[in-house]
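_Full entry_
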Amino acid sequence: MKLFFILVILAGITYLLVRRNVSGLTSTPVWLLSLALMLPALSWSAWIVVRGEPKEVPPQLIILMIGSVITSILLYSWLLQRGRKDSKPSVSSHQENPTPETMNPWGINVSSSPSQSTQLLSKEEEQTLKTCFPWDVYYLQNVDYGGQAVLCRGKLRTGPEKAYERITNNIKRHFGDRFFIIFQENLQGDPFFALVPNYRQQQNQAQQQDELNQPKLAVALAFVTLFTTTMVGTQFAGFEIEKIQSDSKILLEGLPYSIALMLILACHEFSHYLTAIYYNIRATLPYFIPIPFFLGTFGAFIQMRSPVPHRKALFDVAIAGPLGGFLVTVPILLWGLSLSEVVPLSEESALWNIESLDPRSSLLMTIFSKIALGNEFVSETAIDLHPMAIAGYIGVIVTALNLMPVGQLDGGHIVHAVYGQRTALIVGQISKILMLILAFQERIFIFWAIFLFFMPVMDEPALNDVSELDNVRDFLGFLALVLLVTILLPLPATLTDFLNV
């Protein structure tokens, strides 16, 4: 039943991702494309149903997963190309002729407009547009059209921030809020301007705001998640479901886990939310996702519904979540570890076994365990986690997952903001491969690898996606990647004797 529920959630997420990214590019049904992407997860689930959940990853399962991943990629690519809509360009936004589907990341389906790209501007309006580009700021060489976007290419003659500000003001003076003005680089590193029609301005703003934030729904989901996490926390405390049903007071034993976990998740998401509000980015309230088993929740999320103005804002919004969540995670984890019990190391001890946790597979977890437990935690010992420590441990995992430098994860945004979109694409692909290799060493990472493998590496561009960050943000971005490495990499042998673990 749990496996079925997880598959349903994963299928829903896959369906939404596919519909958002490729529904305008192909006539192949979205459900069929989603099914192709779900093949590895279905293969893994079928193995568990037939053979049971493996304690170690056998070679047969590795072969099955590699085969299903390759088959899934080939099948998905074939289905996508088979239904390709030839009438629409399919070149991504970082290429020479970006299309609006990939260049417009804010949920505005510009391809649905009945007007053609050549009708975006009249001849008179095109001449007016050219006057918006002073030769000493941006020497405009040509005005072109890609799908439903106006592309202005030329040579940058001044600083990116100054150029974007001045040209944006000029365009808005003549065209108002008719366009989103995007400043990006192509694969050759040449900056260009793209004007994407702002069809959202035609909608009622008050209605949008009502649809955006639903406080009653957010509060209701929070209370339901509090209940489901409390139920799970009570089981982590050692009580069976039957005993909980006969004595509801036992639920109080689950509150340390529940409150600690929800506090970590809330700090993570509200850090994103408040930073987005600071930059006048429209965003939804944080919504929790309750489930009646596993961890009691699939986490929480917010959605940004308006453009990110520049790479500084992209960086700040991205790093605020992991930073806010991790700052709360550390004291909770240390407190929980101090309440945990040290047990003998056994064959069952592993990074995912909360009753016999072997933290040595994570450098950061090893250090925290040593700080909290001192001389109790030595070689040939493991840790039976207290429910609060479990919440802190989940906080560490959530931080690591979000810091993965892939696509629309926080880490993907951070790498994009620091190094640019082209570098972020390369780093994202390399990260997927490394995570797949790591998954063969640690079973806990197998679903991460599958999840990341099918996540698009294309990140959402900022309106001004050319201006670079300052040194402080560059350093913070580097520290974020260092934190990710310390979580994922095992304790080096050189530190084993030094820490006596």
Summary: The mean pLDDT is 81. Residues 2-82 form one domain. The chain is about 55% helix and 10% strand.
